[in-house]
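[RESIDUES AND BACKBONE]
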Amino acid sequence: MEAYMDVLVWLGIMIFFLVVEVITVGLTTIWFAAGALAAVAACAAGIGIAGQAALFFVVSFVLLIFTRPVALKYFNPHKIRTNYEDAVDKTVKVTERVDNKNGMGKAVLNGQEWTARMYRDDVTAEEGEILKVAAIAGVKLILEPLSEGPEKQK
């Protein structure tokens, strides 16, 4: 009867990790579900709870470490890098007043005009100002003033 309860516990753990995987789709907890399945097999083979737990951890971490990178490569093969991550910290010229409260603003980066917003809602920038790219959010440049000092441009 105790072995039956152990099997139910491991199946519950496996279902828990499968549900978490479905919710998060991060290819992380699926490996722990596989470890729980190995523990179910160990339980059915009559191995004690310490052996079941050890097998759970060993199988889970081996799969996580050795198969997750390969799985991610094949599940995400068409991810296209835009290289605009390199735009952060570059300077841009404002071509239309940037005002978050009114939802307006444009700036030129590498010869292309982008929709622009300020990093803080209480700060605006006027046409012609030179600002720094703080981040990129979707298709918008998030801008901030250049640091104070001799390199500050107006």
Remarks:
- The radius of gyration is 26 Å.
